[in-house]
Design a protein that fits this description.
By secondary structure, the chain is mostly helical. It has eight helices and no strands. The relative contact order is 0.18.
Length: 256
Amino acid sequence: MSEWLVLSLAMAAACAVVLSIAFFNHRRIGEDDDPNETPDVIEYMTMMIGVIYAIVLGLAIAGVWEGRGAAQEYVRQEAQALHEISVRSQVYPAEVRAKIRADVDAYVTFVVDTEWKAMADDGELTDRGGELLERIRRGVTDYEPQTDHEGQAYQPLVDQVAVADDARSARGASAGATMPGVVWFGLITGALVTVGLIFTLQIRRSFREMLLAGLFSALIAFLLFLIWDFDAPFGRGISATAEPFLTQFSHLDLGG
């Protein structure tokens, strides 16, 4: 099912539940009911709970957005390091240079075309990707420089392999969901409480009150959807992309 369809259904359901409760609740109110009798303390508590929940929602959104940005940065670092390995191997003999570049291309192709989907589906890296990166490492470290120029390029190449390995590990660590279940429980419970407090103010069936209640509940549903969508940086609609690999290795036929 499309994520945006899920969002639409969730927002519509939130509106429908709130409006239905308001409708049936109004039918039980007597003719002599006076909505002005709502105590001021309830209005104050309702306002404070709404403010506190807004702060919690803001922190949650900021946290998952930061996690998504960090995941995208790990991808950029990995792609840049692999690009540097491919370029700096120019000083090596043609046979060694060709092998290193072929290994880099094979790794990048596997990451973009295969491992990316595995991260989205399972939230983890693949063993095959690690094997291909290890092949790059061996290709760089097993060669013994024959000239001073090659010797000067050797250590920077080894360092770039280490950068790529570190970025890959970080990419794998950020592939899964980061929000603990207890946080989701708090967010959903807070949403129910916040929306439910509408009824403590004796909401009526006027068009203006119904419209505001529906929009408010839809907004809460939308913000929760954003947190859920950002929570898996590689697995959902607004996710980190493989664009750095596509940019740095544009000569490859990558599926993205």
